[in-house]
């Protein structure tokens, strides 16, 4: 069997015959001219060199399928990954109670099937909370790691190709939880959410929590005003005041390391307002702050630089020794592009944040609205809107040869990604264009901006 890792975690194990079955199903549905070529069957037993060659061919095949907007977003492909995930973890289909946290620590218990996908679980939580259908698309489920003091750090946003119950259960660690949070960046969308009582309450508890965690900066006078609004239970006014504060609507990441402005600097990164904000501690202990706009990032990639264990136990984000890096190429001035690298276990979540900011910018640019980001179920499957031109992420395959410790080339395309040809980049060294997110929201700097 081949191990498929998604988001740095062992997602499932599949055999060549299962992948061949998927290929034949895709060909039947979409036609031979759309589906990429599949590694051919061999009559005789494969030599170790042929096994490795087949693994590489299968990985390329899976990447090609995942990058195709039609195939990668198809229910056939995603349900294949979900079913394989369930079979690999050997979790039978049965009714279970799943706890989903709200930002204030409140637990929402939903009765679901172990085989329910992310969208099913999100709908079950919304239904339990009485959140109306038209607001479901404004929220997402996130996998978080909760520390003993109640603070949590984000692992990733749960994706359409996974089963939330199985994803959490397979980690065998009570620190990993699922939390419901808003999943948009532009605070003007708060108005839509606040129109409804439940939407307002969810936004309110998230805002209070972010202030308590120190994610939103508050001075003494603002704190006094907020306290007074809290006592009056003026939730809308509380949110309106919070919207004016620094880092409102940002996600704050755990302290990590960056090579900007010099190697080995400790940094706290926050994502929000279409930027990555850096609070950097320089070697002389001086703290400097600056921001990198998403529209100035030409492309980015997520890579790992440590061999990944081939077994199931070595691949949970809690135990893994994989060193993850997010690197982005930034337009520093009119003719100067520079790579900036962040080394963080949360590199994948950072990449997902960047991509969702780009998606939102592109939808706004095309005159769309966030409500159109999600279409309700068509034939039992959720479809992304055409305006996003979603290109999906390739999972990764390990060699079935257990004695071999492969270098894990982690996927950089972990949510919908807009790719464009960037292999001509002289600054990309020897890394192929397939390792990159190209950024459709990238804008050159004009003379008037300098």
Automatic annotation (TrEMBL):
This is Sorting nexin-17. InterPro entries: PH-like_dom_sf, PX_dom, PX_dom_sf, RA_dom, SNX17-31_FERM_F1, SNX17-31_FERM_F2, SNX17/31_FERM, SNX17_FERM-like_dom. Gene3D superfamilies: 1.20.80.60, Phosphatidylinositol 3-kinase Catalytic Subunit, Chain A, domain 1 (3.10.20.90), Phox-like domain (3.30.1520.10), Pleckstrin-homology domain (PH domain)/Phosphotyrosine-binding domain (PTB) (2.30.29.30). It is found in: Cytoplasmic vesicle membrane; Early endosome. Critical regulator of endosomal recycling of numerous surface proteins, including integrins, signaling receptor and channels. Binds to NPxY sequences in the cytoplasmic tails of target cargos. Associates with retriever and CCC complexes to prevent lysosomal degradation and promote cell surface recycling of numerous cargos such as integrins ITGB1, ITGB5 and their associated alpha subunits. Also required for maintenance of normal cell surface levels of APP and LRP1. Interacts with membranes containing phosphatidylinositol 3-phosphate (PtdIns(3P)). Residues 94-185 form the Ras-associating domain. Belongs to the sorting nexin family. Residues 381-410 are annotated as: Disordered. GO terms for biological process: endocytic recycling; intracellular protein transport; signal transduction. One of its GO terms (cellular component) is early endosome. It comes from Pampusana beccarii. Keywords: Cytoplasm, Cytoplasmic vesicle, Endosome, Lipid-binding, Membrane, Protein transport, Transport. It is a peripheral membrane protein. GO terms for molecular function: phosphatidylinositol binding. Residues 1-88 form the PX domain.
């Amino acid at each position: 069997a081949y191990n498929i890792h998604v988001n740095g975690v062992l997602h499932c194990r599949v055999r060549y015959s299962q992948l061949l079955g998927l290929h034949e199903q895709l060909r039947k549905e979409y036609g031979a001219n759309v589906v990429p070529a599949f590694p051919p069957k061999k009559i005789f037993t494969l030599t170790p060199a042929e096994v490795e060659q087949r693994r590489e061919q299968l990985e390329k095949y899976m990447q090609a399928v995942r990058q195709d907007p039609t195939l990668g977003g198809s229910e056939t492909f995603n349900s294949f990954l979900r079913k394989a995930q369930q079979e690999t973890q050997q979790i039978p289909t049965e009714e279970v109670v799943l706890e989903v946290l709200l930002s204030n620590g409140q637990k929402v218990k939903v009765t679901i099937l172990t085989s329910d996908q992310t969208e099913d679980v999100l709908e079950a939580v919304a239904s339990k909370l009485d959140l109306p259908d038209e607001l479901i698309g404004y929220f997402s489920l996130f996998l978080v790691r909760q520390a003993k003091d109640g603070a949590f750090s984000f692992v990733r946003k749960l994706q359409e190709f996974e089963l939330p119950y199985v994803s959490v259960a397979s980690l065998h660690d009570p620190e990993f939880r699922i939390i419901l949070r808003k999943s948009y960046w532009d605070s003007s969308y708060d108005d839509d959410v606040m129109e409804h009582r439940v939407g307002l309450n969810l936004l309110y508890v998230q805002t209070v929590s972010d202030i308590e965690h120190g994610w939103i900066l508050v001075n003494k006078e603002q704190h006094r005003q907020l306290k007074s609004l809290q006592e009056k239970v003026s939730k809308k006014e509380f949110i309106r005041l919070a919207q004016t504060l620094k880092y409102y609507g940002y996600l704050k990441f755990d302290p990590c390391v960056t090579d900007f402005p010099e190697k080995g600097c400790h940094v706290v990164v926050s994502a929000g307002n279409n930027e990555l904000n850096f609070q950097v501690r320089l070697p002389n202990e001086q703290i400097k702050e600056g921001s990198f706009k998403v529209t100035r990032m030409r492309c980015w990639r997520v890579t790992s630089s440590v061999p990944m264990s081939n077994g199931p136990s070595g691949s949970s984000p809690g135990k893994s020794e994989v060193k993850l890096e997010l690197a982005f190429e930034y337009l520093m001035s009119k003719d100067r592009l520079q790579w900036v690298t962040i080394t963080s276990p949360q590199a994948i979540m950072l990449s997902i944040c960047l991509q969702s900011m780009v998606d939102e910018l592109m939808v706004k640019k095309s005159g769309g609205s966030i409500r159109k980001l999600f279409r309700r179920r068509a034939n039992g499957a959720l479809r992304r809107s055409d305006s996003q031109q979603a290109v999906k992420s390739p999972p990764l395959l390990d060699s079935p040869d257990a004695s071999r410790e492969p270098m894990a080339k982690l996927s950089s395309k972990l949510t919908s990604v807009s790719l464009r040809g960037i292999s001509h980049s002289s600054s990309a060294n020897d890394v192929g264009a397939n390792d990159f997110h190209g950024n459709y929201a990238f804008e050159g700097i004009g003379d008037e901006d300098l």
